[in-house]
Write a structure and sequence with these properties.
The protein has 411 residues and is an all-beta fold. It has no helices and 36 strands.
Length: 411
C-alpha cells in the first residue's frame, strides 16, 4: 500500500499541530500522519472550518452536528481508536469552532510505523427538494412511503378531491376522492389508503378507502371534524384530536377496515397536530387549542390509553409528522410568528433538532413512514406544490471541503 501523507505535522514544545486542508470522505483517502516514537497523547483540540454539498444539489449545508470525526492510532494491521468527536457547529456559517474531544485512553506511540488516522463521515439526515405536485394546495392529507407516496384532498381556493401518487421520483394523477374536502386525516399506503373527516363547508365524518386506482366509501367516523390527525393502516387506522364547529376534541377513534369505534380520550382537547405510528403505538405532536395556544405537547398511545411524553422544542401547529412512535420526525408548521422550516427528531423519549427544510411551509402533508417526505402546504402567500425528502446522507453523495487543525497535547 502506498503511503501518502495527507496531513502536515508541525511540532511544538508540547504540542503537535496536524493541519489537513482537504476533508475528503473517501475511505481510500483517510488522511494520516506518522507520529514520533514515544509520543503520548494527552488531549486533542479540534478547530474545524468546513461545508458540505449534496451531489446534484445547489444547497450548501451548515454541518450542524452532521459531521463526525474519528481519530485512531496504530499500525496498518492494528489500529486502535482513541477518540470520537462530533462537531458542534459555529453560530455563523463557515466560522471556525474549537472544541476539545474526550478519548478512551492515553495512547502512547510505540514507533514510527504508528499513525494518527482521521476519518470523516456524515451521520445525520438532510432535506432535498423533489418533484412538484401537479396541483398546489394546502390542508391536504398524505400516506405511503418516500418511494410510493400518496397525496389527497386539500384546498386551492375551493375544496378539492385531487389525488396524486408518487413513484419513480415523480407525481402522477390518481383517482379523485368522492367527497372533495380539506383538513382531512389520512394513513395507509399508496395502494391501500384511508381518508377520514375534513371540511366541505360543513364538518364531515366521511371515510374513504383507496385501492391504488379509486376511492370507495368506508364506515363514517363517530365524531365529525377537521384538522384531526391519523396514522396506521387501512384495516387498522387511528384518528385523534381535531375540531368540530369550533369545539376542540380529545376524541380517539379506531378503524377495523369496516367501522370506527371510540377509544380512550387524549389528555388534552386540541387539533392541528401531527401524528404517526400505528393503531397500537401512535404519537401525537404539537397542535393548537381553544385558548389559541400553539402547543409543544406530545402524547403516546399504546392501543388503549394516551400518556404525556416530553415536549417538542418549538411550539407548532399545522405541522407534518412521519415515522413510528420511537423514531419519528416532526417538521415545518406554524408558530405564533410565521411558517417554520425546523425539523425535530423523536427517539421514543426526547425530541432533538434535525436539519431544517429548504423552505418554510405550513398546512402541509407527509408520507407515513421513514425515510419520509413532505408535500404541498402554504407559505403565507401562496399554495405550495413543492416536495421535500428527508433521508440519511450517503457519504458517496457528499462533497466535503474545508480545513481542520488538530492540536495534540503530548508529553
Amino acid at each position: 500500500m502506498e503511503r501518502v501523507n495527507l496531513i502536515t505535522l508541525k511540532r511544538g514544545l508540547n504540542t503537535i499541530d496536524v493541519v489537513h486542508e482537504d476533508l475528503g470522505l473517501e475511505s481510500s483517502k483517510k488522511p494520516f500522519a506518522f507520529l514520533p516514537a514515544g509520543t503520548q497523547i494527552k488531549s486533542v483540540l479540534f478547530d474545524v472550518k468546513e461545508k458540505f454539498r449534496s451531489t446534484g444539489s445547489s444547497n450548501v449545508h451548515n454541518p450542524e452536528s452532521n459531521i463526525q470525526y474519528k481519530c485512531m492510532i496504530g499500525t496498518e494491521e492494528d489500529t486502535q481508536e482513541f477518540l470520537t468527536y462530533s462537531y458542534e457547529p459555529a453560530t455563523i456559517f463557515g466560522k471556525s469552532n474549537a472544541n476539545t474531544g474526550s478519548y478512551f485512553n492515553s495512547p502512547t506511540v510505540k514507533n514510527y510505523d504508528t499513525k494518527l488516522i482521521l476519518e470523516t463521515w456524515v451521520t445525520s439526515k438532510i432535506w432535498t427538494v423533489g418533484d412538484d405536485l401537479a396541483t398546489a394546495r394546502r390542508n391536504l392529507a398524505g400516506a405511503g412511503t418516500q418511494t410510493a407516496g400518496l397525496s389527497f384532498g386539500g384546498f386551492t381556493g375551493s375544496y378539492v378531491g385531487t389525488t396524486e401518487e408518487y413513484s419513480s421520483a415523480t407525481w402522477s394523477s390518481g383517482g379523485s376522492l368522492s367527497t372533495s374536502r380539506y383538513g382531512l386525516g389520512g394513513c395507509g399506503t399508496q395502494t391501500a389508503g384511508l381518508s377520514f373527516g375534513g371540511y366541505t363547508g360543513s364538518f364531515v365524518a366521511t371515510t374513504e378507502e383507496y385501492n391504488g386506482a379509486s376511492w370507495s366509501g368506508g364506515g363514517s367516523l363517530n365524531v365529525a371534524g377537521y384538522f384531526l390527525a391519523g396514522c396506521g393502516t387501512q384495516s387498522a387506522g387511528l384518528s385523534f384530536g381535531g375540531i368540530d364547529s369550533g369545539v376542540y376534541s380529545d376524541t380517539t377513534e379506531e378503524y377495523n377496515g369496516t367501522s370506527w369505534s371510540l377509544g380512550n380520550d387524549m389528555n388534552y382537547e386540541y387539533g392541528m397536530m401531527g401524528g404517526c405510528g400505528t393503531q397500537t403505538s401512535a404519537l401525537s405532536c404539537g397542535g393548537y387549542d381553544v385558548s389559541s395556544n400553539y402547543l409543544t405537547v406530545s402524547e403516546e398511545y399504546n392501543g388503549s390509553t394516551w400518556a404525556i411524553t416530553n415536549n417538542l422544542n418549538f411550539q407548532r401547529r399545522l405541522t407534518s409528522c412521519f415515522g413510528i412512535q420511537n423514531d419519528a420526525i416532526c417538521s415545518a408548521g406554524e408558530s405564533e410568528i410565521s411558517a417554520l422550516s425546523s425539523t425535530e427528531e423523536y427517539n421514543g423519549s426526547t425530541w432533538s433538532m434535525g436539519n431544517n427544510l429548504n423552505y418554510e411551509v405550513r398546512n402541509l402533508a407527509s408520507s407515513s413512514t421513514q425515510p419520509g417526505m413532505t408535500f404541498g402546504g402554504w407559505d403565507g402567500n401562496e399554495y405550495i406544490k413543492r416536495t421535500e425528502l428527508y433521508s440519511s446522507v450517503n457519504p458517496n453523495e457528499i462533497s466535503l471541503s474545508g480545513k481542520m487543525n488538530i492540536t495534540l497535547l503530548v508529553t
